[in-house]
Specification:
A hairpin with a 2-residue loop joins strand 3 and strand 4. The protein has 4 helices and 13 strands. The chain has 2 domains: 174 residues, 3-Layer(aba) Sandwich (Rossmann fold); 53 residues, no CATH class. Helix content is 28%, strand content 33%. The longest helix has 34 residues. The strands form 2 sheets. Strands 1, 2, 3, 4, 5, 6, 7 and 8 form an 8-stranded mixed beta sheet that branches. Helix 2 packs across helix 3. By secondary structure, it is of the alpha/beta class.
Length: 278
Amino acid sequence: MTKQKLILLAFGLMVAGCSPLAPRPDYARFFILTPIAHSANPAPATSNLAIGVGPIDFPGYLERSQVVIRSAPNELDLSPIDRWGEPLNKNFKRVLSENLAQLLNTYHIEEYPWSYETKVDYQIAIQVLNFETSSNGQSLLRARWIIKDGKTGRDLYASETTANAPVGAGGTGISAALSSDLSTLSQAIAAEITSLSQQADSQRTSEAVVPDADQEDLLERRAAPLEHYNRPQPLFAGTVRGHVQWTIEAAEAPQDCRIISYIGTHSTPVGGTPVISG
């Protein structure tokens, strides 16, 4: 190969390397949020609580694949290489559901929207206000949340949680810090659901029917055999103008009465026709 050909080959390779059409290396990194760490031997879920998670409202500036960094109160920077491995709102809801399942010891977690036939005890609606890191090395989660009665939709509790954590060094520092913030929110929600559930159990126990003395007497009378009512029981006695002595007694049934005097017996069931005998 002549010297001229070598020069042309080297020139061609140099041009190809500088071409805008030449492939470029992809330096993008992808991250996800992580749930609370499980124990090595987790106990099986024993709670029957059914929890509905959602809706979760995210601000529009977080609905993107790039990791958002707040550089000033009114300025956001988008990372040129750091990306979320799945839409952040879906990742947020999935990890929150996993956290609540573990904290409340239940398998019954439903993600919004669920079918009409699905019944939940409590529903959590969340409005996320901030969920990003800042240029000063801190993460921030600020969210308002409401716990609703799963059967009636009535608001039972409302609160706002603010959580932050230092962003560690390395590529996973951002996702680890935001995962910690989400764990703080999960624990606050789980604690309030536990409190509401305990209050509901206590209320159901206190509302259980405990017969008082009058109710017990009524139950005994209803359970008594018919001959119990065949034994006359004096209710009232007196005289009329000093000549007629009379007595009112219970008769064949509790709703009957019988008037007895020396000249005869006048039996009058309540609501019936008087009967004169004797």
